[in-house]
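Posted in: Protein Modeling Q&A

I'm a second-year student putting together a small comparison for a lab meeting, and my supervisor asked me to include a predicted structure for Cysteine-rich venom protein collettin-a. I've never done this before, so apologies if this is the wrong subforum. The sequence is pasted below exactly as I got it from our records. If anyone can share the structure token output, I'd also love a short note on what stands out.
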Amino acid sequence: SNKKNYQKEIVDKHNALRRSVK
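Accepted answer (user: helix_wrangler)
Welcome! Here is the predicted structure, written out as tokens:
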């Protein structure tokens, strides 16, 4: 029921991946 939290988690994962690549 927390779609915002879900999206935030996805963004966090994406950011972590980008940081890893960088």
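A couple of things worth pointing out for your meeting: The chain has a mean pLDDT of 90. Residues 3-21 form the longest helix (19 residues).
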